[in-house]
Amino acid sequence: MELSEIRLLVADEMQAVNDHILARLRSEVVLINQLGSYIVSGGGKRLRPLMALLSAKACGYRGDGHIGLAAIVELIHTATLLHDDVVDDSKLRRNRETANAIWGNEAAVLVGDFLYTRAFEMMVDLDSMHIMQILASATNTIAEGEVLQLLNCNDPDTSEQRYMDVIHSKTAKLFEAATQIGAVLAGRPADQEAALGAYGMHAGTAFQLIDDVLDYRASADVMGKNVGDDLAEGKPTLPLIYAMRQGCKRDQQVIREAIEQGGLERIEEVLAAIESTGALAYTETVARAEAEKACRCLAVLPESPYKDALASLTLVAVEREA
């Protein structure tokens, strides 16, 4: 199933999610309206709200509460992007200037805070302590993941396990929450709720690992951000970690210095080391293994087009070029 076909299954619901987000973004503070609308209208894959909708439908949900839940998930994600771009001093995202590049770091951080708090207001409206607990815990774990990533920056001795811990906390946790709450909303038993959450965790991990690959393979026009951004920021992602582990002493030294110093002065040498060690192929293999685990988690669900769509999304995650 192609991504366009998957989106078509819940096209009306996705439009409702976008409308709901724009409505709840409104504020008497003009800057919040300007910056919030800019970042939300900037496109993006919307995979997290898409998975929330599909999860609820695959579990047999028939109401409209999944619209608000998907909107909450997207607002939390958008808030993390605003804060990420400030921390990373990013200037380009989705082929557009970042919000902090236009309005400044202070405004980007504060509007990110507004998105978080608005999301929590929307959680209260749902009147479900269990859903609030899942989303609150996920938001807290994401913040921990951001700090873990900060600690790993410029540290060439970061292990594969330490990096996977970052991925699980910073990226995959919101995928997990998005799919788990779909099962909660549908009133599914605990084993199905856990399975849907595990699906999201594995799918989100696969998604991030392919992001790591694309940082060294895709062009800026395709990715919507600058190639080599992770290296420029001194982030030891899995391709670098593997290349250091498998490379010759010269490769190891080049990558070590590149991570410690940040910047792209030695990008060509780093790319050569990544190529010679098969680091991108290794990372893709790990991503595909995560995608397969995600698919297996769906066995608890009855057959439906929505279950098929969730399975297909794992392939989209690992086969995408942007």
From TrEMBL:
InterPro entries: Isoprenoid_synthase_dom_sf, Polyprenyl_synt. One of its GO terms (molecular function) is metal ion binding. GO terms for biological process: isoprenoid biosynthetic process. Its EC number is 2.5.1.90. It catalyses: 5 isopentenyl diphosphate + (2E,6E)-farnesyl diphosphate = all-trans-octaprenyl diphosphate + 5 diphosphate. Its cofactor is Mg(2+). CDD domains: Trans_IPPS_HT. Pfam families: polyprenyl_synt. It is an enzyme of class 2 (transferase). Keywords: Magnesium, Metal-binding, Transferase. SUPFAM superfamilies: Terpenoid synthases (SSF48576). Supplies octaprenyl diphosphate, the precursor for the side chain of the isoprenoid quinones ubiquinone and menaquinone. NCBIfam families: PRK10888.1 (NF008140). Belongs to the FPP/GGPP synthase family. This is Octaprenyl diphosphate synthase.
